[in-house]
Write a structure and sequence with these properties.
The complex is a heterodimer of chains A (253) and B (254). Chain A is mainly alpha-helical and 253 residues long. Helices cover 77% and strands 0% of the residues of chain A. The longest helix of chain A is centred in the C-terminal third of the chain and has 32 residues. Chain A is globular. Chain B is mainly alpha-helical. Chain B contains eleven helices and no strands. In chain B, helix 1 packs across helix 5, helix 3 runs antiparallel to helix 8 and helix 7 runs antiparallel to helix 10.
Chain lengths: 253, 254
């Protein structure tokens, strides 16, 4: 039986609903937490780094925009790694296209981003940030970040089936990475040599475009091109690796 | 006395079982233990050079000491928290004292700390850290830290059996605490109003005392010791009390 696009989307939404219900049914705070947590972090970071002036942008706005964008990647990749293992039964017993499990995790993370954006919106309003037309680029940015994330998720999920260590490793990599992408401090404060490497890092590019489009109302063509290139590259890599390994995954699981 | 020996034997067995389980899952985990603080040290030293380093001499050693102590707190308390639920079967079916599992988690956390501190030796030599007699103080500092962690572990373990939420909340708390425990920022870098609160953070106290005796060989302010010991006593008494009271309810819940 051929799965058409409609059924595809339906399954993704069902899986996502199940994920969200499961995730938030256990906790008393529920979805409210998705909004609260980034705010909490923001307060702490601001309190710690508050001596810091950022050429007319208040720290909370700078931090939260970057962090929210980064967070989507973070959550998506971490949760989709175990997507195949978690859905072992469905994987083996149905004819669902296998990629769907990873996609639903990514979609869940996107939904989570939606909730955290509420917090972002509140902060933007509170600090009276002037929104210009470039804010459209923020949505474009998120779209391409999503594509990038999907590619990486497939890559990680495939690796995870064979090499469980990757989960542990990836978690640690993420913890270290967050210091390398100018979330807490603007890139100008990094040493010169390091700035070069940071500029080409996709995980710097996506949050940076978000910041530029929302706060500064500017954009950089070079960055936008990089945004697209990284997304396509990652998608290709992810899909190729996944397709090549698909049969081995079926055998392993 | 006989009982003590038996408990020690059981602890060893559980520790061995857990290590086997851990190393089956992560052949890397062992090496990573050593690698993690080193990587942190390298990355933080590189990226925050302009932001912090000019204030601190021998920043890499500074970071390394902070990170190892923080990891000790972090991983030990998290393992201890889940230790009762994870060992549900053993708890229900045997007459082992409930505490054994919590203590065991701290014990393995401590071993990890010591293991990762091996890297401290070459680092100290490279950065020409002068070791003074005060390094002996590290022993009581670490022991008291271990006790504080054990107390926190007990409290968390009890809470976790009743409220699963605790795991997530604690995880978030720890992620925030990294930044507010003086792990890679000295006291002076924090804004005025935060500084006062910071000096009450037990993690911060452990790190400061540890650094002062190990790295700088200077005397720590008496108030640091006072607060440190206060936490030690308060937590010990409180955790004992809660633990004994709720122990049986816990087992019933499991």
């Amino acid at each position: 039986m051929e799965y058409g696009l409609k059924q595809y989307i339906f399954v993704i939404r069902e899986l996502t609903t199940r994920e969200i219900k499961r995730k938030y049914s256990r906790s008393v705070l529920g979805i409210f937490w998705s909004v609260l947590q980034p705010l909490l972090f923001m307060f702490v970071m601001t309190a710690v780094f508050s001596g810091f002036t950022l050429n007319n942008i208040s720290y909370p706005v700078y931090y939260l925009t970057g962090y929210t964008t980064w967070s989507m990647f973070n959550i998506a990749t971490t949760t989709s790694m175990t997507a195949f293992e978690d859905n072992k039964l469905l994987f083996q017993k149905t004819k669902l296209p296998r990629g769907i499990f990873v996609l639903s995790r990514d979609y869940t993370s996107l939904v989570n981003l939606g909730f955290s954006s509420i917090a972002l919106l509140v902060v933007l309003i509170f600090f009276r940030v002037q929104i210009k037309w470039t804010v459209i680029l923020f949505f474009v940015d998120i779209f391409f970040e999503l594509l990038f994330t999907v590619g990486i998720s497939f890559l990680l999920a495939t690796i995870y089936v064979f090499y469980k260590d990757i989960k542990f490793l990836w978690h640690n990599i993420l913890v270290l990475l967050i210091h390398m992408i100018a979330i807490f401090y603007p890139i100008e404060r990094y040493p010169e040599a390091v700035q070069e490497y940071t500029l080409i890092n996709p995980l710097f590019i996506y949050p940076d475009i978000a910041r530029k489009s929302i706060i500064n109302g500017t954009y950089e063509l070079k960055q936008l091109i990089a945004m697209i290139v990284w997304a396509i590259g990652s998608l290709l890599l992810g899909f190729i690796v996944f397709k090549l390994a698909e049969n081995s995954i079926i055998k392993k699981i | 006395m006989e009982k003590l020996r038996q408990y020690y034997f059981v602890m060893q067995q559980i520790g061995y079982k857990e290590q086997r389980k851990k190393s089956n899952e992560t052949s890397l985990g062992f090496v990573w233990n050593l690698l993690n603080p080193l990587l942190y040290m390298v990355i933080l030293s590189t990226y925050y050079t302009n932001i912090i380093i000019h204030d601190i001499d021998r920043f890499p050693v500074f970071v390394f000491t902070g990170i190892t102590i923080f990891n000790f707190y972090n991983s030990s308390t998290k393992t201890a928290m889940k230790s009762l639920v994870n060992n549900k079967n053993l708890l229900i079916k045997t007459k082992l004292p409930v505490e054994v599992f919590v203590i065991n988690s701290i014990y393995s956390g401590f071993r990890e700390f010591l293991f990762s501190s091996i890297a401290l030796i070459p680092i100290c030599i490279y950065y020409k850290v002068h070791i003074t007699w005060r390094i002996i103080l590290v022993i009581p500092i670490l022991l008291i830290t271990a006790s504080i962690i054990t107390s926190i572990g007990r409290i968390l373990a009890i809470c976790y059996t009743f409220f699963g939420d605790v795991e997530y909340l604690y995880s978030v708390l720890m992620s925030m605490l990294v930044f507010v425990s003086g792990t890679f920022l000295p006291l002076g870098n924090y804004p005025e109003n935060i500084r006062y609160l910071l000096t009450y953070n037990p993690i911060f106290l452990s790190i400061i005392l540890y650094r002062n005796s190990l790295m700088y060989g200077i005397q720590s302010h008496w108030s640091a010791w006072a607060k440190f010991l206060m936490w030690f006593l308060a937590l010990l008494i409180f955790s004992r009390y809660i633990f004994d009271k709720k122990k049986d309810d816990c087992i019933n819940m499991l």
